[in-house]
Every structure is written in structure tokens, then in C-alpha cells.
């Protein structure tokens, strides 16, 4: 599925991009790369149909550079590390956490730099195209990739150029992020929509630290709400962002709608939200 032109040639309008994002998110087998690229097109007006196609072609081309006849999870992990980490230079650094581009797939392909989860998306998509048994692993605080049977725990860290991860490495990483031991549930392969929601959560966190970027927070919440499964509280977050951006009436109305939803479960919380809605309306006076 490719975005259809709207407005200027090759550039879908924001509503069309959201429609296509929602449609792909509800597909029987959602295309992770396409969802990330549609997300990128919402974020970056310069990314048009040709740019989306070029990114997909680059992933295909990278997959074509992997050796033929690779067998076994460890061999695949080594082949990806040699190609993407060593030859192509895909990796990350602490500075990448400060850049919105680090969460946009087309920019990660261009810069060869990004957050752990976006670098993992590159690995997953390149490996998948080459027929590798690959999956994402959403460890707390750090996303990595796995190869072969998940029970084998063949893990690699794309953020570190594809460094192989032992079970002890994963345990130390989780302990450092949460103070808790590694649990088997943390190693379950992440589904495409779970990966996309985590990317959007990262973008929301980036925008939350920058009050002047309410626009970014809003589109990230809007896309999150288009996913079939998402936290209900995002509706309240969206209402708050509308108020912060000066859309007091819309924000107040959405707060009241959310209060009606939670009223049957948490009436005290619903009343507090209604008070905030009244306060938002008073800002017009």
C-alpha cells in the first residue's frame, strides 16, 4: 500500500496519512516499516510518496546484500552485525536521545543513527526481507532484536552496532533500568503494533520535555489513538494538549467526554476532570 497523492503532487495531506496509518494498523498483518514511514510523513512534511518508496527500496537493497544460505540464529545475528553495524555504520549514542529524528525511520536510514527501537526496526525489516527468523525484544528501557527460536535467547543490540548479548547482559540491562530481575515475559517477541506504540510513547516523552513542541505531542497522541489497542488515558492527555495549545473549548469538551467514560469506575476522578474542563473554559474569559 502506498500513500495516494493529495494536495501538492506526491504529498498526502495529514488526514489522508492518518487514514492510511489507521488502515494499515488494522490490517491482518500490519507492515511495520510502512507504519513507521507513515508516522514519519506526519512528522516531516518533506517526506512524500517518493521518499516513502525510496526508504522501502533501501531496506530491500540492504537485505539483498546479506549473504545467501545463512542458517541458524547466531549466524543471522553475525551477518546482520557485519552488514548493518560494521559496513553501514548503523549505531546510536546518548546524543541521539535528544533528537526527534532518532524516532523517524526515514531519518534513521539517512543518518545511520537513532534510538535503540528504530535501529531495531531497521534490523528487523532488513532481516525479515532476507528470510531471517527475527523478532523485536522490548526490554525495559532498551529495545533489542532476537534471532531464531526465542528460547535460545540469541540477542543482539543494534544500538551498539549489533553487539551480541548474553543472558547475563540482558539481566544487567533490566536490573539497571528497573532494579528488578529479568522475567521471561520481557523476552516475548514484540508484535508490530506494540513496537509502533512504543515508538509513539518515546516521541510523546520527547515532546513532554519540550513544552514548545505541543504540536509533536498532539500528532503522536492522535496516531496512538488510531491503533486498535491503546491506553484509554490517552484521550485525557489529548484534551490537556489541546488546552495547552490554546484550543480551550475543544480541550474542555474532550475532558468532559473522558470524564463520562471514567465516571462509572472512578467518580471522584471524573469530577476532578470536570473541574479541569471548567477551568479550561474559564481561560476564554
From TrEMBL:
Signal peptide residues on this chain, from the entry's feature table: none
InterPro entries per the UniProt record, alphabetical: SirB1_N
Superkingdom per UniProt: Bacteria
Residue ranges of every copy of the Protein SirB1 N-terminal domain listed in the record: 56-201
UniProt family annotation: Belongs to the UPF0162 family.
Name the UniProt record assigns to this protein: Tetratricopeptide repeat protein
Amino acid at each position: 500500500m502506498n500513500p495516494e497523492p493529495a494536495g501538492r503532487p506526491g504529498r498526502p495531506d495529514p488526514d489522508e496519512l492518518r487514514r492510511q496509518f489507521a488502515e494499515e494498523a488494522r490490517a491482518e498483518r500490519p507492515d511495520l516499516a510502512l507504519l513507521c514511514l507513515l508516522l514519519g510523513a506526519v512528522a516531516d512534511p518533506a517526506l512524500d510518496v517518493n521518499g516513502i518508496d525510496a526508504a522501502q527500496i533501501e531496506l530491500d537493497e540492504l537485505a539483498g546484500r546479506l549473504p545467501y544460505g545463512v542458517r541458524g540464529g547466531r549466524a543471522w545475528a553475525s551477518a546482520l552485525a557485519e552488514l548493518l553495524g560494521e559496513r553501514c555504520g548503523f549505531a546510536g549514542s546518548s546524543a541521539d536521545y535528544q533528537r526527534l529524528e532518532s524516532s523517524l525511520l526515514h531519518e534513521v536510514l539517512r543518518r545511520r543513527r537513532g534510538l535503540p527501537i528504530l535501529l531495531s526496526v531497521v534490523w528487523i525489516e532488513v532481516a525479515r526481507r532476507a528470510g531471517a527468523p527475527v523478532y523485536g525484544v522490548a526490554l525495559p528501557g532498551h529495545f533489542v532484536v532476537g534471532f531464531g527460536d526465542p528460547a535460545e535467547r540469541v540477542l543482539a543490540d543494534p544500538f551498539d552496532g549489533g553487539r551480541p548479548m548474553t543472558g547475563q547482559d540482558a539481566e544487567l540491562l533490566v536490573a539497571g533500568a528497573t532494579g528488578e530481575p529479568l522475567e521471561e515475559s520481557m523476552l516475548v517477541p514484540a508484535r508490530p503494533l506494540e513496537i509502533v506504540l512504543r515508538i509513539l510513547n518515546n516521541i510523546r516523552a520527547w515532546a513532554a520535555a519540550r513544552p514548545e513542541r505541543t504540536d509533536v505531542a498532539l500528532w503522536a497522541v492522535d496516531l496512538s489513538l488510531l491503533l486498535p489497542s491503546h491506553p484509554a488515558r490517552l484521550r485525557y492527555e489529548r484534551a490537556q494538549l489541546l488546552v495547552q495549545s490554546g484550543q480551550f473549548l475543544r480541550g474542555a469538551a474532550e475532558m468532559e467526554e473522558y470524564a463520562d467514560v471514567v465516571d462509572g469506575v472512578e467518580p471522584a476522578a471524573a469530577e476532578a476532570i470536570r473541574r479541569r474542563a471548567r477551568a479550561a473554559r474559564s481561560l476564554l474569559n
